């Protein structure tokens, strides 16, 4: 197992999750508002699961990695309260797509999220293993479960959690946030701009001064000095757990997105 940080970063960059086509497909397909709602439901729950630190920063501290603990704690604090802004952006995009106020009150996170779930039930509810109570696909639950390991405080789990955090922040900064910008803003589908107040979520996360850039640097700094023969294997496992499970979620959402785009009237039009 290599202990060179550059090799670990290259491994993450070469994972198929890092260049998954889902956001390019979104921009091409121009999905119906209901499809957008379903996708946001799954994405929103996944993102929410990645924000809390659980016992992870504390475990790092207790295991003698106080510098790493501080770097992870900084990320956790900067992620607090991002849920309402993500819901606002989802509602705004759906309103634009539908050309009507489906989500009349963009401040009402609960009401927006309720409608997103019913879109998900509609589009994805017949998939095997779909959970009617949460409205989550098997793949979303698997991706979320990787973050439940943050409740564990043993050494091996903590190293795995570091690998997960590194992969998460690289994916957020280089794939997920740029992907959202591509399909929501750059595509022109929603006449949306980064400086609209409803799009503040994306503005805050995107680019050179965005939150994700700082998170990625924190995660790289945290992992760099810890890489030994023993830890590298666990850290790599943690990164792979994240990348494999998120790629699985993207696959199922991508398939539903593409299917939705190639049926019905719009093919004939
Ligand atoms: Fe965030
Ligand atoms: Fe982040």
Which CATH class is shown? Answer: Mainly Alpha
CATH architectural arrangement: Up-down Bundle
The CATH H-level homologous superfamily: Heme oxygenase-like
Mean pLDDT over the full residue set: 95
CATH topology: Heme Oxygenase, Chain A
Estimated helix fraction: over 70%
Instruction: Briefly note the structural class of the backbone.
Output: mainly alpha
Summed up, the domain count is: 1
Topology summary:
Blueprint: H1 5-14, H2 22-29, H3 33-50, H4 56-62, H5 66-79, H6 83-98, H7 109-124, H8 138-148, H9 155-186, H10 200-205, H11 211-224, H12 229-261, H13 265-268
Helix pairs in contact: 2-9, 2-12, 3-6, 3-7, 3-8, 4-5, 5-11, 8-12, 9-11, 9-12
The chain binds fe (ii) ion (FE2) (2 copies).
Folded structure, characterized:
The chain has helices at 5-14, 22-29, 33-50, 56-62, 66-79, 83-98, 109-124, 138-148, 155-186, 200-205, 211-224, 229-261, 265-268. It is globular, with a radius of gyration of 19 Å. The protein is mostly helical. It has a single domain, classed as Heme oxygenase-like (Heme Oxygenase, Chain A), CATH 1.20.910. Helices cover 70% and strands 0% of the residues. Bound molecules: fe (ii) ion (2 copies). One fe (ii) ion is lined by residues 79, 82, 205.
Task: Give short descriptive properties of this protein.
269 residues; Heme Oxygenase, Chain A; 70% helix; single chain; binds fe (ii) ion; disordered C terminus; 13 helices; mainly alpha
